[in-house]
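Priority: low. Protein: Phi13 family phage major tail protein. Input follows.
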Amino acid sequence: MENKTKLVHGLSDFHIAILTEDDKTAVEYESPEELEGAVDVSVNPNTETNTKYADNGAFGVLNSLGDIDVDLTAVDLPQHIQTKIFGHDQSGDVVFSNVADEASELALGFKAQIQGGGHRFYWLLKGKPELTNIEHSTDEGTVESQDTQLTLRFTPLRHNGNWKAQLDSKEVTSAKWFENVVYDEETATAVQGTETTE
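Result:
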């Protein structure tokens, strides 16, 4: 898309993909899976800033990236998703949470709309979810749904240091972007092949 200011709005298409390998030689993800019912998402990179003083003044500023805090709200977090990302055990339709469960590292994808056409696509590449709170309240005259909130902490990939992939496009479809996690130049090139507009 042309390099100009765009009005971005909306949110849809949460996707998760379990990270199975991340080292100097390779990155591997399971196939992405859609998490329906995107309500909102907040991404907050934590940076440390240090000003270096020299010659009687501020000489320069050093920045370093810490972890990245992500909060998302969805209509629901289905049991099969909870089992997958938190490492729970399932017996029939019953899910058991155990003190020994270990949460999986995962990628999180989503998109927003761009006024005038196209979308802004995202992949956050390596995060670990925190256990979700359980909150329900009684119906009082009117019935309101009770959304699920999930907090994740993201860090850069060990493989290449990337922590986010982002694309503004009128040509790339949601099916193409969310087919695989985009984490390096090779996967970015593959996703930008010829596609028809949604």
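Helices lie at 79-86, 174-177, 185-191. Residues 8-191 form one domain.
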